[in-house]
Amino acid sequence: MHLLAVGLNHRTAPVEIRERCTFQPEQLPEVYRTLLTHRSLVEAVIVATCNRTELYLVTDRRTMKAAEEEALSFMVRRFRLPADGLRPHLVVLRDREAVRHLFRVAAGLDSMVLGETEILGQVREAWETARAHRATGKLLNVLFQRAIAFAKRAHTTWRVNDRPLSVPYVAIGLARTFFGDLASKRVLVVGAGETGRLLLRHFADQGVRALFIANRTPERAEELARRFGAKAVPFARRVEIAREADVVATATSAPEPIFTRPALEAALGRRERPLLFLDLAVPRDVDPALHGLGQVFVYDIDDLQGIVEENLAERRRIAAAIERTIDGEVAAYERWLETLDAVPVIAALQAKGMALQAETMESLLRKLPPLDERSRRLLEKHTKNLVNRLLQDAVLYLKETAGTREGRAAQAAIVQSFRLEPYLAVRSGSEEETGERPAPEAPRRDPRVGGVRLVRRSEPATT
């Protein structure tokens, strides 16, 4: 089996392409049905967000090229875009690179905002949706489980989001560094645009109880105040409110400073408590001459952007470290994949062993006096244990050597020595009919091996 990842994202396609290449949740049942009607596709998971649409697919070696072409054609048909307009933006990754890509996506290393955590929830939801529509099997289930677990460990260990890249969020972080817990502080936000809204939301999230908002348009200030549990105050009273505040955050479009030194100097008097100004406006809202006036501290957009750039540099350093750990995760998944080539032989060996156990039980029950239920169960348990213990070394050897030349030779020798062909044929036929990997079942009876026990070469076989 082989893995394919086919799709586009913010790096490969402009927004006018990405916005047309989306799936609505109610469309997914029909989409999965359509995808899996193609014999070249065995498993599928669709990861669709505002910045990426990707198909993760499983195909077998014989149909890999057909599966790749079908996936590309499917996206062209589905999104009703000309092939020459869409295909240049599509990326196709195979096997190792597809696995690596999913680990990077889940950990936020391929996101527009490096290291963000929202994508992890979206990857988990995509996988759970595919499972609900019975579109996944063993390969993608294990792959997504491992990618999700890895991403959770990475975020917990490295705490990438402790280094925010949003200027409003950096401003709140600076206030927390300055004062510690903000819940008991008095905060004034001036400006009710998008930046002002983000500032208000972040301060509300910090539990600030005395939260005020001022804006030249009072209706907008009142609307945001209701949404975030703040109090709207007249713009004209901004200096008066600032006099009693601990933090003043500004984000207006005023052409001149709205907090000047003369006005604040008169208002503050002999105030000894610190007053922190966070000026996110361009042009600046706060007269830089205020910095150093008593206990007044002023940070403007350049100061905050400098912190953002430091955080971004740190995120990049952390991302590089996480990238290095992905190599081990990919190698571990590949080692697990290699063991799968031994699975049919192991299953056939175990199936034959259980068939012999069942025949032996049947023979014993005919020859022994009638047994009570407890004795019958005890006999069955011990005969099964005996079979498992006889096979365990062979099974362990097959697992340890899976994917190697030695392992393939061992598989062939065991199939021939234990005459497993009928059991492999039963298993193969079951998989072709269902498209799944069922639990191994023994044939009812194999006339060529019935009654033969597993013995050393030097021992005679008894029937």
TrEMBL record:
Ranges where the Glutamyl-tRNA reductase N-terminal domain occurs: 6-156
Mind telling me which residues the site (Important for activity) is annotated on? H101
Keywords in alphabetical order, please: NADP, Oxidoreductase, Porphyrin biosynthesis
EC number(s): the record gives 1.2.1.70
Record's CDD domains? NAD_bind_Glutamyl_tRNA_reduct
Tetrapyrrole biosynthesis glutamyl-tRNA reductase dimerisation domain residues are 322-419
In terms of PANTHER family, this protein maps to:
GLUTAMYL-TRNA REDUCTASE
For domains, the record's comment is:
Possesses an unusual extended V-shaped dimeric structure with each monomer consisting of three distinct domains arranged along a curved 'spinal' alpha-helix. The N-terminal catalytic domain specifically recognizes the glutamate moiety of the substrate. The second domain is the NADPH-binding domain, and the third C-terminal domain is responsible for dimerization.
The entry's protein name is: Glutamyl-tRNA reductase
**Species of the source:** Hydrogenibacillus schlegelii
